[in-house]
Design brief:
Elements: H1 2-30, H2 34-40, H3 44-52, H4 54-65, H5 68-77, H6 92-98, H7 102-110, H8 125-131, H9 135-143
């Protein structure tokens, strides 16, 4: 009887662990637009691992700093970087808008980044540009809505 109880407890622990992992996976997928999910054909885990890597962190930093040559080179080598987000859910496109780098915004859009991708605060690059009053940026982002 004790063995059955122990096995049942172990099964419950495993079930909770699977449910938690599934929830984390769904939350990460929710941050990706459908276009990104289809385009990349990668798992949320692949994207998370890339985001936590030096390559992913450097990419987000370069988008934020406006280093167009580095951003261009990185995306050419690994388009999956477009789906990478920082711990607050900001993707490269969010960071380019926040730091007002129109050239980076135009580049990322041309490579397939979504102006409607949602960060951890529920904000898209487009909504951020509007809230900051960045008219030229809003225009570029609105022209590329899908």
């Amino acid at each position: 009887e004790r063995m059955k109880s122990a096995n049942k407890s172990q099964l419950e622990v495993e079930k909770i662990a699977i449910e938690k992992k599934t929830q984390e996976h769904l939350e990460l997928l929710a941050r990706l637009s459908f276009k990104e999910q289809a385009f990349y054909g990668k798992s949320a885990e692949d994207i998370k691992n890339l985001a936590e890597s030096t390559e992913g962190k450097d990419f987000l930093n370069n988008c934020s700093c406006g280093y167009i040559d580095k951003v261009f080179s990185a995306v050419e080598q690994n388009p999956l970087l477009l789906a990478v987000s920082s711990s607050n859910g900001n993707k490269g496109l969010h960071w380019a808008v926040i730091t007002n780098h129109l050239n980076i915004v135009a580049l990322l859009i041309s490579k397939g980044a979504s102006p409607l991708a949602i960060n951890g605060d529920g904000k898209s690059p487009l909504s951020l540009a509007k809230s900051k009053g960045l008219k030229d940026m809003v225009e570029v982002l609105e022209k590329n809505l899908v």
